[in-house]
């Protein structure tokens, strides 16, 4: 029986309520309204897929699995839904069920097998959000796969193959974005950089032919413009979007993207003026906290630089994901012991929330910076006296990849500070100890971390800030940022090739 008009209107209202909660990162309420919309008749496969996302975020994995199952039963279910479902099953300890989902996806998408293989090996669905299109179906990909898998494959050969394919218009951005991740897995970072640059040009060409119609499309196009260093094109796309998609929500999004674009260019003073004109109370309070102060951000890498006293001499010291004061004290000589501001990442909060709360109860910070409003509300219930704010990085998608945490932290600190920010304990994983002991439990797939965090975007962003004098770096980081990006990419290839250690070359 078809729902009547009154029920359909109620379903539409519930759907819009769910969307509003999702934008606030309040996934518990979003999931409740998603369920209500589905019960009232808004029960498309997309609705079930989004319900699965919400339930995953609040760790209702059983409910999420049921929702994803409903979402992939539709005949037109895209590849990305299968990979998200399989990733969830792997994450919750059901590899056999995950394998069955992969098999089902292979049957429905026989030409997407390469993309599925990458997702299965990395146990992640992230790379598919942009790669579930025609890129996985290109026959050239199969030939490249065999060539790159050869025992004697060399990076120069890979770069030559990419150059010969670069002008083929039928090879879409999806093809090149898939290759970007694939080449990192093959330890060919310099070739991955070339693939990403070609992908950026494809995205920009498409955006110039058919300007972005949604905020998501705008973010992607502007991220590609930053990658290609075509900043004027990025500003033109933002201006056109604001003029043609003239709603209050879209104008606010265009303003946020402009702010990020200016920061990516290194035009920090202009970004600061734009931020001040926007007049957000939380931004003003953070600016007041930083005004006239010397500030240092200390990353988790052990680089061998003994800068403890120098770090602690700053007016404010920021750190990432602190949960144990003893670990900080153990590194006092290298990295100081003061902690005034702490930036907590989403994954860290998800896996260590109670440990973070216990630490802050014993060692209150002057300010903690969190990623999502829902986390802030949760922490405020337990620690009502602990000052907090939401991380103000505005880069929604880094063109496949999410940027290193330090990239977002520097966006936030430099944007609000009025003096150069000092940076310590960061080396892009080129050293032997990416994290100090106890900071991160478990090992890393280095190639995947490089691809997922978009190391080249982070490098270019930090280099522009350093060149413009907005950040001051310790000697290790300064030496890295003094290189051009091609040499930097070659160093990453070198590190990947040598089992996670960078071979010393003359």
From TrEMBL:
Record-given protein name:
Tetratricopeptide (TPR) repeat protein
Where on the tree of life does the source sit, at the highest rank?
Bacteria
Give the lineage. Bacteria, Pseudomonadati, Pseudomonadota, Alphaproteobacteria, Hyphomicrobiales
Q: Which PROSITE patterns match?
A: TPR
Span-the-membrane segments of this chain are none
**Keywords assigned by UniProt, alphabetized:** TPR repeat
Sequence ranges of the TPR repeats: 45-78
Q: Does the keyword Repressor apply?
A: no
Which species?
Hansschlegelia beijingensis
